[in-house]
Design a protein that fits this description.
7-stranded mixed sheet; alpha+beta; 17% strand; 4-stranded antiparallel sheet
Length: 441
């Protein structure tokens, strides 16, 4: 395997700690948290994330070469700081930013913090799943906007495995002169394939912890153009933590290089993914273009997916999410045949022996009416009101279901019965003690 610069620097460095962190790597701590002896700070041998010095700089240059980027930067707070940093660069370059209606809450949070009034692109919903904006919708949005669109942000792949038409989006970006930004948080395993965000985007983020063997919160944000590298690094120094986790950084480098050195595992994993989907028949599966996501569709099966998900947990099988129609199974190159067998056995045991698990009903979600601008609502005087009396009020903050952390109501939109019902269950974000934030008045 390629040299692991960060891991090699911090592994086995027995020393007396008169520096952060406070656990000091003692036996009292490491017996509960094995490996914590590698949890160091910026020292002579470990380098600095803010300055991209030493072993961190070497690791980032290697990662950039593998991903095909002009520059890549590790983050230890997930993809969120990457999203904020890319939009910060876009804001400073000027123009409006167009985004899909259904994107991660971090995009909307960044718009609120940075003072960006987003241009929302419509999307088609297929089989209960929102699709990426089409090339026609992107061009229409850019061409019809009264102000110049300086950047377009797309999500590819999304939580359901859909792949955006990045090739056409890139051509449009060259024709209209906008930056193409891609939230590729769910696609870090695709860097060897033609659908990879880095082959087309001016800037993109990879959530390596989602689909590579990397610790949670590990991610990479990259620039595809030389003229963006300095601005992106400056932005990261604003939004990225100044106290990074060295084990997380080491695992990011490991995850990228592991897949780069073991690409044969990709084909085996793709075959395993198909085997799982086939084994779940006759229950249908929704498949986008990304093999790591298998969406098991319970519409018309006579089973309530919420109950099935709970029963799977009793068999020790934990899916990524259940959205009321689909159970999402999230795979990686580390998913094993034994994992497949355990999943299939649990699934068949449940569906063949239990007949009264309820009915999955198709949920039709109409987009709420826009009452005022996004930034107008974010900046307005606000208050929290109980969900059950919020119908007709104007939302002052994003709210939705986590996962997948895609807002169902945006600031400036009117709260409907559908929204109230959807946000009344478990797993909602933007809801505080059963109340939702609305514009006061």
């Amino acid at each position: 395997m390629a040299k692991l610069h960060i891991y090699d620097a911090i592994n086995g460095r027995a020393h007396v700690s008169f520096h952060m962190p406070g656990h000091k790597g003692t036996e009292n701590f490491t017996k509960f948290f094995p490996g914590a002896e590698m949890d160091v700070t910026e020292l002579s041998f470990s380098g600095s994330l803010l300055g991209s010095e030493g072993v961190i700089g070497l690791a980032q240059r290697d990662i950039a070469e593998i991903l095909g980027a002009k520059a890549s930067f590790i983050t230890t707070d997930g993809s969120t700081s990457g999203i904020f940093s890319m939009l910060y660069v876009a804001k400073r370059r000027g123009g409006r930013v167009a985004i899909p209606r259904y994107c991660h809450m971090s995009v909307y949070n960044a718009c609120a913090v940075l003072g960006i009034e987003p241009v929302i692109m419509d999307c088609v919903v297929k089989e209960g799943v929102p699709l990426p904006p089409s090339a026609e919708e992107i061009e229409k949005t850019v061409a019809d906007c009264e102000e110049k669109v300086g950047a377009v942000l797309l999500v590819s792949p999304d939580y359901y495995g859909n792949i955006a038409d990045l090739e056409t989006a890139k051509a449009l970006s060259e024709s209209y002169g906008f930056l193409l930004i891609v939230d590729g948080a769910h696609g870090s395993h695709l860097f060897a394939e033609d659908i990879y965000a880095g082959r087309y985007a001016d800037m993109w983020v990879d959530g390596t912890h989602k689909s590579l063997p990397t610790l949670t919160q590990g991610a990479v944000v990259s620039a595809g153009r030389e003229d963006l590298t300095e601005a992106l690094e400056e932005a990261l120094n604003v939004f990225r933590t100044s106290s990074p986790s060295y084990p997380v950084m080491a695992s990011v480098e490991y995850g990228v290089k592991y897949l780069a050195d073991n690409r044969e595992k990709l084909e085996k994993a793709k075959i395993l993914s198909k085997d799982i989907a086939d084994a779940l028949y006759p229950v249908k599966t929704y498949r986008g273009g990304d093999w790591t996501k298998i969406c098991v569709d319970f519409l018309g099966t006579g089973f309530d997916p919420g109950y099935v998900a709970k029963w799977l947990e009793l068999y020790g099988v934990y899916p990524e999410l259940c959205d009321g129609r689909y159970i999402l199974l999230y795979l990686s190159v580390e998913t094993t045949e034994a994992d497949r067998d355990r999943l299939v056995l649990a699934f068949r045991t449940i569906t063949e022996n239990w007949k009264c698990l309820g009915e999955c009903k198709e949920k039709v979600f109409a987009l709420p009416k826009k009452v005022c601008g996004f930034l107008d609502a974010v900046g307005a005087k606000s208050e929290y009101v109980p969900l059950d009396v919020a119908k007709g009020r104007v939302a002052a903050a994003v709210a939705g279901i986590a996962p997948p952390c895609m807002p169902r109501i945006l600031p400036g939109e009117e709260i409907t019965d559908d929204v109230v019902k959807m946000l009344g269950g478990k797993g909602s974000f933007g809801i505080k003690d059963g109340k939702i934030k609305v514009v006061k008045g």
